[in-house]
């Protein structure tokens, strides 16, 4: 069957949209002056019926005036109004800039800003002004309009400094910011926040107090140290390049951290030639886990020569490009597929230039927000890279470091026996997940441990007689130890072939399940003296708008600790041990939450 070609959406002008649709989308806003006058008046609640505005917004005005009167001071409202007006001006300038750069954004999309917190930059979202169908092309973006190390005015500086990858892109952003209105991307940079509030930008006391025990605590502290080293070794030296006359105020550690936060949260892989870059318009779509309205793919441009690609590879300087760790963390392989999104961005080779298309891959109703999905990411990955979390995230996991398992073994067995059993486990070609210099085991959202952990615990707990017999069998097998016939030699020899997830129940002896419970306790202690119930109470009392760092760190802590609780329940159920009343109580509590 011939594939149906993608089609451009029909052009819709906003002045032709029905009033009902505009109301739905928030296109018609209340007069700021009306609200200000109402609040400044001593008798704003006693407005007569004849003085109330007519039309569909009458009830909205009364509600907003009352709400503002009790919750927002006039000075705060004036400040918010000023910020909103400035944000609107920047957005209008950006839309004009997109047209000038050849970025074609469909009239079926509405880019809107909202400023709910005066202390933070306005948030941006993209909504559908009409029904969008699968295959609709809602935007085309020339690659030359993207901010990359290739297109930036800093490309010669980056090449001379032998920078590349994420580090080079961060330098490109800092350099373009230093140019001010002279930058090609000035209007685009104006609509971006100065930085994204990812943990990398938190202070060390905040990291220690808010992330203690979580998957991010150690990672973020290591990242922060690497970033400072990165700046000292790679960024500071370029300030001494007299030929470029850089303004040092735009290349400080804080500016570098801010640029890195934008790269971490907003960059896309464009193609082989450009590498990663900032893609105007594409980075305005908000994320929603498992909501694939928008799909992202990037194909290599056929117009790029092999010589250009080879030249780019030669100019990359991997030795100092330690950015991969803070800005592109693997989070223990959580980031599986960055192409999982609602909107597809694919490269298209035109006659004169190469551009990308943004394609709807799922029907979207009028008035609905159009989401981009960054991938199947747990809350640790979302917070680390994007600065936010999601409640009830189905992709959450918890890790148990190999060091915790070793410490548990040393508490029961001699150091010699523990080392011998661990070495044997590795001889069988088992290993945990590896990230940087650490090895660990994943616990799924359902509380089920990795099979490799179960095998290790099983081997650790074998009697000496059974272990010696297994060791002899391994030696006798030699190169043919994967032969399944050897699995019949003894009751333990099934370990000599890879244990699959499907038959891991055989590993769940009472001793192994008790070990799992002990490991859960050890992992739980990393969170400190506060209980899960206390964390949940703190979360319920926390306001995301006023204290986002605490809010998102509590979401992460609670989600991880619930998984640990489920690991205990898994251990109790798998062992066949009678579940105590306390465990039953915890099971009900976990399920209810």
UniProtKB/TrEMBL annotation:
Task: Identify the domain of life.
Answer: Eukaryota
Kindly indicate whether the keyword S-adenosyl-L-methionine belongs to this entry. Answer: yes
Q: Which UniProt keywords apply?
A: Methyltransferase, S-adenosyl-L-methionine, Transferase
Q: Mind listing the GO molecular function terms for this protein?
A: protein-lysine N-methyltransferase activity
- Keyword Coiled coil among record annotations: no
| Record-annotated SET domain positions | 184-375
Q: Where is the composition biased (Basic and acidic residues)?
A: 305-316
Acidic residues compositional bias: what residue ranges?
A: 317-326
Q: Which GO terms describe its cellular component?
A: nucleus
GO terms classed as biological process: methylation
Q: Which InterPro entries match?
A: Rubisco_LSMT_subst-bd_sf (IPR036464), SET_dom (IPR001214), SET_dom_sf (IPR046341), SETD3_SETD6_MTase (IPR050600)
Q: Where is this region: Disordered?
A: 305-326
Q: Which PANTHER family match?
A: N-LYSINE METHYLTRANSFERASE SETD6 (PTHR13271:SF34), UNCHARACTERIZED PUTATIVE METHYLTRANSFERASE (PTHR13271)
Q: What is this protein called?
A: SET domain-containing protein
User: Which source organism?
Assistant: Striga asiatica
């Amino acid at each position: 069957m011939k594939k149906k070609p993608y089609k451009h959406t029909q052009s819709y002008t906003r002045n032709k949209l029905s009033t009902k649709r505009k109301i739905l989308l928030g296109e018609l806003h209340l007069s700021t002056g009306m609200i200000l006058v109402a609040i400044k008046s001593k008798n704003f609640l006693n407005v007569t019926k004849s003085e109330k505005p007519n039309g569909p917004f009458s009830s909205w005005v009364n509600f907003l005036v009352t709400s503002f009167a009790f919750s927002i001071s006039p000075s705060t409202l004036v400040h918010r109004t000023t910020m909103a007006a400035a944000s609107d001006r920047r957005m209008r300038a950006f839309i004009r800039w997109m047209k000038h750069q050849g970025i074609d954004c469909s009239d079926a999309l509405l880019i809107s800003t909202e400023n709910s917190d005066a202390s933070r930059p306005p948030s941006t979202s993209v909504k559908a002004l009409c029904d969008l169908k699968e295959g609709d092309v809602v935007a085309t973006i020339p690659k030359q309009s993207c901010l990359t190390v290739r297109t930036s005015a800093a490309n010669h500086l980056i090449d001379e400094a032998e920078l590349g990858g994420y580090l080079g892109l961060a330098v490109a952003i800092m350099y373009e910011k230093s140019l001010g209105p002279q930058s090609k991307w000035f209007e685009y940079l104006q609509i971006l926040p100065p930085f994204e509030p990812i943990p990398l930008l938190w202070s060390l006391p905040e990291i220690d107090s808010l992330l203690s025990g979580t998957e991010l605590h150690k990672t973020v502290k290591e990242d922060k140290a690497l970033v400072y080293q990165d700046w000292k070794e790679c960024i500071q030296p370029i300030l001494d390049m007299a030929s470029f006359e850089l303004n040092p105020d735009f290349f400080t550690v804080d500016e570098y951290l801010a640029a890195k936060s934008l790269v971490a949260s907003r960059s896309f892989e464009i193609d082989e030639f450009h590498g990663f870059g900032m893609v105007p318009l594409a980075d305005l779509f908000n994320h929603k886990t498992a909501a694939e309205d928008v799909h992202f793919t990037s194909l290599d441009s056929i117009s790029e020569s092999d010589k250009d690609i080879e030249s780019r590879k030669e100019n990359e300087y991997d030795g100092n490009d330690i950015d991969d760790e803070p800005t592109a963390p693997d989070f223990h392989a959580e980031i599986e597929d960055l192409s999982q999104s609602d909107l597809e961005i694919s490269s298209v080779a035109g006659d004169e230039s190469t551009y990308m298309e943004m394609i709807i891959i799922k029907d979207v109703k009028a008035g609905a927000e159009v989401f981009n999905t960054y991938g199947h990411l747990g809350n640790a990955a979302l917070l680390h890279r994007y600065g936010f979390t999601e409640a009830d995230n189905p992709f959450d996991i918890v890790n148990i470091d190999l060091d915790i398992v070793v410490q548990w073994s040393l508490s029961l067995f001699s150091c010699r026996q523990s080392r011998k059993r661990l070495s044997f486990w590795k001889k069988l070609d088992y290993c945990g997940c590896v990230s940087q210099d650490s090895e660990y085991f994943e616990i799924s959202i359902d509380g089920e441990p990795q099979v490799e952990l179960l095998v290790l615990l099983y081997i650790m707990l074998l009697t000496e007689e059974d272990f010696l017999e297994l060791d002899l069998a391994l030696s006798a097998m030699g190169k043919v130890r994967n032969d399944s016939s050897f699995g019949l030699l003894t009751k333990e020899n099934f370990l000599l072939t890879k244990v699959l997830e499907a038959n891991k129940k055989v590993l769940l002896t009472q001793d192994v399940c008790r070990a799992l419970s002990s490991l859960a306790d050890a992992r739980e202690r990393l969170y400190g003296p506060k209980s899960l119930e206390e964390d949940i109470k703190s979360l319920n009392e926390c306001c995301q708008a006023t204290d986002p760092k605490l809010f998102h760190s509590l979401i992460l802590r609670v989600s991880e600790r619930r998984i640990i609780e489920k690991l205990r329940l898994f251990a109790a159920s798998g062992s066949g041990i009678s579940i105590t009343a306390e465990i039953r109580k915890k099971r009900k509590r976990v399920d209810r939450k």
